[in-house]
Structures are given as C-alpha cells and as structure tokens.
Amino acid sequence: MSEIVVGLDLSPSARAALHWAAEQARATGQTLRAVHVTHVVSAYGMALGMGGMAMSTELEGVDALDREAIEAVFDSAQPDAGWHLKFASGEVASSLVAESIGASPARL
C-alpha cells in the first residue's frame, strides 16, 4: 500500500490540501502522512550539519501552542488508523520534497 504525503501549516490552503488528501487517501485505500516543517535558517542548519534536510523532532523548533494548533488541524480531517502527523525542521521546500520521496503521485 502506498502513502499520500501532504505539507501542513495553519494556512487555509494547507487545510484545503489536507482535506483533499484525506478524501483521496480514503478513496484509494492509502495511508496519509501530514508533515509540518518548522523553518530553520540555512546558515544555522549548516552549522548544525543538517544541510537543510528534514530531521525528526518532537518539540524542537515547534512551541507547544503551535504544535497543538497543527494537531487540531490534522484531527479535523478525522484521521484513519495508520495516518500520522510528523513534525520536522529544516528548509521547508527541500524538506517537503525529501519527505515526499516514494509517496503516491497526486491524481486530480
């Protein structure tokens, strides 16, 4: 079974993308992984050896209020079993591209 990956923040467009991805996952029997990336300035990331790539984090870079708000948005999609929300830090675009490797291509 393949997976649908969707970027998630608090914007209206991200919420719409999450709900579209949820409908698509249910219709195709796939799992869904929503990814929230906290931006890390490249120079800071390079100094830490992250190179702008996504790295798993629990509360690093995401304060508790932001984390709760993102979790509430994810929960609004009424996640099925096996769906999950991942928090990462890094350069947002390259992190989301890295997270999407191997994911199902979007079918509109």
Task: Describe what you observe in this structure.
The chain is α/β, with parallel strands linked by helices and about 110 residues long. The protein has a single domain (about 5-100), classed as HUPs (Rossmann fold, 3-Layer(aba) Sandwich), CATH 3.40.50. Helix content is about 40%, strand content about 20%. The protein is built from four helices and four strands; from the N terminus they run βαβαβαβα. The protein has helices at about 10-30, 40-45, 65-75, 90-100, and strands at about 5, 30-40, 55, 85-90. Strands 1-2-4-3 form a four-stranded mixed sheet, sandwiched between helices. β1, α1 (about 10-30) and β2 (about 30-40) form a beta-alpha-beta unit. The longest helix is centred in the first third of the chain and has 17 residues, at about 10-30. It is globular.
Describe, in short, the structure shown.
The protein is of the alpha/beta class and 108 residues long. It has 4 helices and 4 strands; from the N terminus they run βαβαβαβα.
Number of domains: 1
Name the structural class: alpha/beta
Overall pLDDT confidence: 82
Assess the beta-strand content as a share of residues: 15-25%
Q: In the CATH hierarchy, what is the class?
A: Alpha Beta
Helix content: 40-55%
Number of helices: 4
Query: What can be said about the biggest beta sheet?
Result: 4 strands, mixed
Spatial strand arrangement across the major sheet: 1-2-4-3
CATH topology: Rossmann fold
Find the CATH superfamily: HUPs
Elements, N to C (H/E): EHEHEHEH
